[in-house]
Amino acid sequence: MSSKKRPGDGLGEGDAWLAAVATAAAKDSGAPVELLGEYLPMLAAATVSGRRPHARDLDAVGLIGRRAAEEGIPPGRVVDLYLSAAWRAWRQLPVVARSRDSEVVRGAAEAVLRVVDDAVAALVEGFQEARRQMIRREEALRQELVDDLLRGGADVAGLVERAEPFGIDLGRPHQVLIAAPASEDRTALEAAGLALERSMLDQFGDRNVLIASKEGRIVVLAPADDSGPRARSQARDVAGFVHSRLSDLRGGARWRVAAGRAYPGAYGIARSYEEARESLALSERLQSAAPIVRSRELLVYRVLARDHAAIVDLADTVLAPLRQARGGPEPLLETLEAYLAAGEVATEAARRLHLSVRAVTYRLGRIRELTGYDPAAPLDRLTLYNAVLGARLIGWPTESA
Q1: Are 389 and 301 in contact (CB under 8 A)?
Q2: Cα→Cα distances 240→13, 220, 235, 290, 345, Å
Q3: In this predicted model, what pLDDT tens digit does every residue of 23-48 receive, in sequence order?
Q4: Which terminal residue of the chain, N or C, has fewer Cβ atoms less than 10 Å from its own Cβ?
Q5: pLDDT > 70: what percent of the chain?
Q6: How many CA atoms are closer than 13 Å to the CA of 118, on its beta-carbon side?
């Protein structure tokens, strides 16, 4: 037979009262009585020995805290169980009940308070550690799910099953948005992601929304319809909602949000993500200052970009003569781009470029002389417009080779 003793061994035959105290405390707190473990015998033993709990005893309490976290029992309820058990047990502790010596009672009180303090601290630490592990595990599972959804994994049935715990119904249409910050501060990115997640959950509820970081950007998976009472006001423009919330963050960082179109199913999510990525890249290559980029607005650019050889040929054929201009082709390209964007109004183009109208008309004249295409003629204007778009897409003239 083992000689190892547990807390409370040898306290006498009246220890049955501890079970009654435990039952009453459990009923009072609403927590399972099993979570008390050897806590009450530990209290009783402390009044006899005056010693603090052994490390192994506190480790056991920590394991109980972990168990409570894993079973989803609120920490306040478990702490209430321990405190309720302590005050209920105090007046019935043998040393307190039988002794008339105030010093003995005071010593017992100090011993009990030390046990309560150590036990509750171990309980809470165990609970928090379990919660941290559960959160890390959930974050890893969520990140893995997001990666597989964006990649378009072949195991659709598996994706549907894994998405369900996160409230994602892959039968519904979703769209993917990518938010790219102006800086590459990883800490700021994580903080922005958390703040955006709180706003998105408040807007759409705790379903059909996933937010994760990927390649230094925030990726948002959001429902594409506006069902639900809280979603109707702003869900029609999720990209605007995301950009607004990120722009309102402290620090005033600039963000660009690219939105793919909405599609149903797991493969639809991957398709929407690719559209958002391509739209973000196109906006950067086009040197666009627009804070929100929607893939449906860039369809013509995507068509042009897919035939690289034809774009290079168009840019070189139409715009190559601009290389002969003093100062190179860029000033003339910039003027032509502003003129076309201003609806072929020279005064508006001059305002945008901070030039005189005379300077703009002079440059337009040089473009006509060098290329043979007149920006004022409808057919020539269309050719020049597509050539300028192509030039921006391929980085002409520096990257056209």
Answers
A1: yes
A2: 72, 13, 9, 12, 30
A3: 898 898 899 999 999 888 888 888 77
A4: N
A5: 87
A6: 20
Written as one letter, the residue type at 122 is A
Query: pLDDT category, 111, cuts 50, 70, 90?
Result: confident
Quick one: which of 93, 108, 84 has its CA closest to 11?
A: 93
In the numeric block, the tokens 């807007």 are attached to 203
* Residue in the structure block whose two tokens are 């306040």: 76
Backbone region of residue 205 per phi and psi (left: phi > 0; alpha: psi in -120 to 50; beta: other values): left
Could you tell me the two tokens for 390?
Answer: 């192509």
- 206 residue type, one letter: D
Block residue for tokens 């470029």: 353
Which of 159, 155, 157, 156 lies closest to 145, judged by CA? Answer: 159
Contacts of the segment 85-89: beta carbons below 8 A, 24+ positions apart:
85/21, 85/22, 85/25, 85/36, 85/39, 85/40, 85/43, 86/43, 86/112, 86/116, 88/21, 88/24, 88/25, 89/18, 89/21, 89/40, 89/43, 89/44
Q: Where are the beta strands (DSSP E) in 162-302?
A: 173-181, 210-214, 217-223, 255-259, 263-264, 292-294
How do beta strands 210-214 and 217-223 pair?
A: antiparallel
- Residues facing residue 180 across a β-bridge: 256
